[in-house]
Amino acid sequence: MLGVLRDEGALSRVALGERLELPRARLAAELGRLIDDGLVEVGGPAASRGGRRSTLVHLADDLRVIGIDVGATSITAAVTDGRCEVLASASEECDVRLGPVEVLRRARELAARTAARAPGRLIGAGIGLPGPVSFRDGMPVAPPIMPGWDRYPVRDELASALGCPVTVDNDVNVMALGERHAGVARSLDDLIFVKVGTGIGCGIVLGGRVYRGVAGTAGDIGHVRLDDFGPPCACGEVGCLEAYFGGAALARDGLTLARTGRSPVLAETLAATGSLTARDVGTAAASGDFAAASLVREGGRRLGQVVASLVSFLNPGMVVIGGGVSRLGHALLAEVRSAVYRRSLPLATGNLPIVLSELGDDAGVIGAAWSATERAFTSPA
Ligand SMILES: [Zn+2]
């Protein structure tokens, strides 16, 4: 019942009963209990149907959920209401390599400062981490870019610090959930969310649930090998998708273009700032710099190659592309689309939107909050 009120907002008693297929007496008993617990409130009268007056019920206004998104280089925290609508949010730079003690301390402080801007009754918190996570155990497992985090009890530590149930998941999974709850993939049961940031990963939603795999590494497409003789990857292998495309690879290739003089725009940026980022490459490409635009096209083509395989394999209802590098925008999207439509079966792509994330940086915190409500609403305190 709480999940329905979260996803659909205020409903009349009649509509709620129909939606849950509950007999009237049972509905009244359940509602009474949730109202006593302060989780549900009764609002004004709803439009009458068939002459019978019905009252609106909705999640209590003072319910609060914390969503935290830990990226490789930043933390974002948001406080939402029970419907996962963001009431306040804040971000700060933070290197995940500082280790769990320091990063979680800063995440808690950021969350506390954010929560103070929208006070209420905290019912749950969710956190996304940039590496493989055991959802069941609430901890990261052998995350490649997070030294010191392996099997650190993130869920239990946060739960005791915040005094509420906590869920821990991979950052891409929570972004996929965010898009499904509040973004471009609203209410779609089968979708893939491809994050192109510092690294590349994929969140898989099947039948309305995140598919995590046996060890929580499902969707780790950044290390799909494209070429046995390709460039070295941070994971120790060669020719991975991430070694060609993604924030680090774009910055590296942009630097080569600047130094060899093939990109006048990037050479100018390098001279002015002393370094180059993926965003600089995007800006140069958008300004018409030929070499930078070729880099983006080439990366998009390789990403599209991998996404085409996923589409053939999973037959999703939508592909959403998000993460920092997705700011490259339509040039990137065009390449991915053309690779997927060219390589996949027409039956799989005939009705397949490939779109950019609508939520941007909020996808992770909204999805983390949504995941937290899933737990809080199944076993309310
Ligand atoms: Zn790799």
Helices and strands, with pairings:
Elements: H1 2-8, E1 11-12, H2 13-20, H3 24-36, E2 40-49, E3 52-59, E4 63-70, E5 74-80, E6 86-93, H4 100-116, E7 121-129, E8 133-134, E9 139-140, H5 154-162, E10 166-170, H6 171-182, E11 191-196, E12 200-206, E13 209-210, H7 241-244, H8 247-259, H9 264-273, H10 278-286, H11 290-314, E14 319-322, H12 330-343, H13 346-349, E15 354-356, H14 362-378
Parallel strand pairs: 4-7, 7-10, 11-14, 14-15
Antiparallel strand pairs: 1-3, 2-3, 4-5, 5-6, 8-9, 11-12, 12-13
Bound molecules: zinc ion (ZN).
Zinc ion is lined by residues 223, 233, 235, 237, 240, 242.
Describe the structure.
The chain is of the alpha/beta class. The chain is 43% helix and 22% strand. The protein contains 14 helices and 15 strands. The chain has helices spanning 2-8, 13-20, 24-36, 100-116, 154-162, 171-182, 241-244, 247-259, 264-273, 278-286, 290-314, 330-343, 346-349, 362-378; strands spanning 11-12, 40-49, 52-59, 63-70, 74-80, 86-93, 121-129, 133-134, 139-140, 166-170, 191-196, 200-206, 209-210, 319-322, 354-356. Strands 6-5-4-7-10 form a 5-stranded mixed sheet, with helices on both faces. The protein has a 5-stranded mixed sheet with strand order 13-12-11-14-15, sandwiched between helices. Strands 1-3-2 form a 3-stranded antiparallel sheet. A hairpin with a 3-residue loop joins strand 4 and strand 5 (74-80). Helix 8 (247-259) packs across helix 10 (278-286). The chain is globular, with a radius of gyration of 23 Å. The protein starts with a helix and ends with a helix. The mean pLDDT is 90. Zinc ion binds at residues 223, 233, 235, 237, 240, 242.
